[in-house]
Amino acid sequence: MLHFYRLSDKSFEYCFNIETTGQLSRQELEILKWLLAETFEPGNFRSCTFLEVYDPGNAAEIVELGPRLNFETAYSSNAVSICKNCGLSKVTRLERSRRHLINYVPGCKDIPSYRQEFIRAGHDRMTECVYTEPLDSFETGGVPEEVYEIKVLQEGAAALQEINARLGLGFDAWDISFYYNLFSNYFKRNPTSVECYQLSQANSEHSRHWFFKGRM
């Protein structure tokens, strides 16, 4: 994995974490650097961190916040698309994290609490996390849950009610009745856990614009 850093001010920098399928040539590296560097401040871009230069010692530490590793962000999708259009076909993922230099007040007696408050206020815990060390891979080691059948044919609508409560799918009574009839009488098979989750997402009020169309 490649890392490049772009300084914003003396206590904040961006880190670009780049996954590739192979080593980039010198020309490819130059193109990548040109894409990532600030046009009018090329001196604030390099392959090692800037913040250590300003680290005053024990009274400060670096906190890095970035996207969760188990899904690719829209930022990465756009960045990879741009890279491919510029001939960088080896780039497969490009995520940007934020590195903050925290300067503690001299004599601060509760640094852990101050640090946690800074982290809490500085990131979206739904989509981001703390990087405790520089990334060397986007792999998380997580193992996806096995796909399994929801026993609608054997247990009736109660099977849908159970998975709805357990996974928080948001099905209402109409949804339960509709999907029970769909799978038991039309498809004549059990739905899978993945299908139920997808139905939940596709039928959410966020996507289901017809649900509130008459109220506008």
Give the biggest beta sheet.
6 strands, antiparallel
Q: From N to C, what is the helix and strand string?
A: EEHEHEHEHEHHHHH
Category by helix and strand content: alpha+beta
Rg, nearest Å: 24 Å
Proportion in helices? 25-40%
Helix tally equals 9
Using DSSP, what is the number of strands? 6
Report the portion of residues in β strands: 15-25%
Mean pLDDT: 89
- Across the major sheet, the strand order is 3-1-2-5-4-6
- Terminus-to-terminus distance: 49 Å
* Total discrete domains: 2
Give start-end ranges of low-pLDDT stretches: none
Shape: flat
Structure description:
It is a single chain. This protein has 216 residues and is an alpha+beta fold. It folds into 2 domains: 2-131, no CATH class; 152-213, Phosphoribosylformylglycinamidine synthase, linker domain (Helicase, Ruva Protein, domain 3). 38% of the residues lie in helices and 20% in strands. The protein has 9 helices and 6 strands. The protein has helices at residues 26-36, 51-54, 74-85, 111-122, 152-155, 157-167, 173-187, 193-202, 210-213; strands at residues 2-9, 12-20, 45-46, 60-67, 91-103, 128-131. The protein has a 6-stranded antiparallel beta sheet. β1 (2-9) and β2 form a beta hairpin.
